[in-house]
Amino acid sequence: MNSFDASTQVERSTDDPGVSTGSFDGSWQVGNGINGGVVLSTTARGLAAALGDDRHPDPLAITGTYLSASTAGPLTVTAEVARRGGSISSGTATLAQPDAAGALQTRAIVQGVFGDLSQLPDDSEVRRDPPQMPAPEDCLPATMAPPHITESAKYLNNLDLRFDPATVQWALGQPARRGMIQAWVRFPDGREPDPFALLFLVDCLPPVLADFGRFGWSPTLQLSAYIRARPAPGALLVRHETEHVSGGQFEEDVRIWDSEGTLVAQGRQLARTPRA
Amino acid sequence: MNSFDASTQVERSTDDPGVSTGSFDGSWQVGNGINGGVVLSTTARGLAAALGDDRHPDPLAITGTYLSASTAGPLTVTAEVARRGGSISSGTATLAQPDAAGALQTRAIVQGVFGDLSQLPDDSEVRRDPPQMPAPEDCLPATMAPPHITESAKYLNNLDLRFDPATVQWALGQPARRGMIQAWVRFPDGREPDPFALLFLVDCLPPVLADFGRFGWSPTLQLSAYIRARPAPGALLVRHETEHVSGGQFEEDVRIWDSEGTLVAQGRQLARTPRA
Prior knowledge:
Two copies of one chain form a homodimer.
Chain A: H1 3-8, E1 11-12, E2 19-24, E3 29-30, E4 33-34, H2 36-51, E5 58-66, E6 73-84, E7 89-98, E8 104-115, E9 124-126, E10 140-141, H3 147-150, E11 160-163, E12 180-186, H4 195-201, E13 220-227, E14 236-241, E15 245-246, E16 249-257, E17 263-272
Antiparallel strand pairs in A: 1-2, 2-6, 3-4, 5-8, 5-13, 6-7, 7-8, 10-11, 11-12, 12-14, 13-17, 14-16, 15-16, 16-17
Helix pairs in contact in A: 2-4
């Protein structure tokens, strides 16, 4: 099984339809914990399982607030249905893990709206075109990143991630200071993107502060993902941007376009800057 | 009492510290319901009351998912504390109202992170400057808006709202089609802005689709607000933008700058386009 699916899959309890269990794989580690997008996607899968709604299989808007760093190992998602509607369903879910003493620690609280992307009208009245981007073969693979990046972000090894060279000058000690990083991303085993993968991919690049020469653990306070369309097969263009770093906090805005140039996801998070 | 404060204030139950009650004033009506920013701010006040945490008085990141349209009249906020930390506290809350038959209907579910904006470092390392904007006296007051706007958005009468003339050509039947509306906003009675008012003000302008000549009720699926700084006294510059309208949905991005040019809030919502 694909490593992302293995780490985000959950099994619904036969006793309680609101409860699902799973296990994080340590290969998704970044900084002190498991990648926040993996946490979001896993919790959303638990919420989808609780909704059990074939009419509304796709996450449309999912937000998570992070309470403590997730770790490799077992997890439980406890979900509550808020509303089953005609075109959308909504609910909340909590992801928890046992700590070293066996006490359950809440990692994230999530709220989400689910619908059916294939039922949305196939219009695109207004759109921002995908950015200019060199072809994947002219981009820099994450495996060439300096060790202080790949060691603190092991999950990068789970992806075929190729950076736009113009946006990774920070890796050479010459940050461009524009607040933007973009890359082509796909799973190396050919697993094609889908809406639950997009919930992770809105958090898949290094924190955009790297473009200002600042590295280290940037804990997310809250992360929202809007899934706008089902992605076509192939590599995705993922762009992280920030325009405001102040008070020890920054917003990270993410756009993802699929191989056909369709905007398929938007993400935004409020995070703390790394401690100096 | 200021009309916004009167409609968003809540009183904490003496029996259950997680429960607060209040009442929406009908003057905050827009389309089929009460303005979504007023709902967000009211629910956040109930969550803050449940946290009861003097160390973390300010909303930092608040997200609401909307389940049904709120109406004028009594409301109950039921909140649950998720975590009380050293620098932030978090929790969830639900706002409900009795329907005509007296059954409680959930209007919105909210999750929020609270902290102390005055304790954040006073740095601003990276910032986007406020946009160019004519002086308030050279802008167009909302009271000059055509009746089909002010009748479907009564709450505009509660604000001193002055549109940048270049962004309200839609009111003259000539939409600029740039996906942007901006205005100076303040409370007409001199009530100065604060973080809870900002939770409302990220939803205070007409839906940005008006700039494409599309009017009508645009129900919000999910709305997030990040409060970045305490606003200085005076009028706020509020800008709504969209760059992607597709599949019957659009995102609305909001930035708010205070009278000193500080970015004080960011908002984003996923909403549905009005039915044709």
